[in-house]
């Protein structure tokens, strides 16, 4: 979704946003922030992190600087993308995941289509980075993927689990090292479950079957309905073709 610049009020107050992990400030128009956070005066009462005298907003407890930069980019352009691709797949995915978790923590109205659009844009980028690594640099390995923080019952966690089961996995470890990794007590049950599922998996992956599998679906999400219908039609045609062959 590309955002039209003419819908942004550039005469609006500029808010100076401080996030965790950096002393740098981001300077964002107030009206854009309030679409996500709600009225800043109310936000101040709840979190005591907005100073109306200096227009400084401290989100250090709810967002990391690099992740919130992606959110700010989306607020202005409607797009998600990293400016620096030289940092490696783990660092890049950490930034994207941090953006998702920040949006999840900070958004004041999770029933709003605006919130789901942001979350879904982040997930689209996350999925694309993993399944199409040639567009971004090095492919992510199994052990790299396991370094990415996972919060249970969130869309990034659901996708990472599906990728371990269905994905085209790569590893830089020798088999005996990988076995040891999967037997680690701290994550052993999760990984054993994944490996057992992987043994019996074949056919279309969840992200091919439904391009919106990791989206939040709110009322009026016509784009998701259209994408899912198209994917279903392509899957059906592929199945019929294989049956004929």
UniProtKB/TrEMBL annotation:
Cross-referenced PROSITE patterns: BTB
Domain of life: Eukaryota
Domain BTB as annotated: residue spans: 11-84
Record's protein name: BTB domain-containing protein
Species whose genome carries this gene: Hortaea werneckii
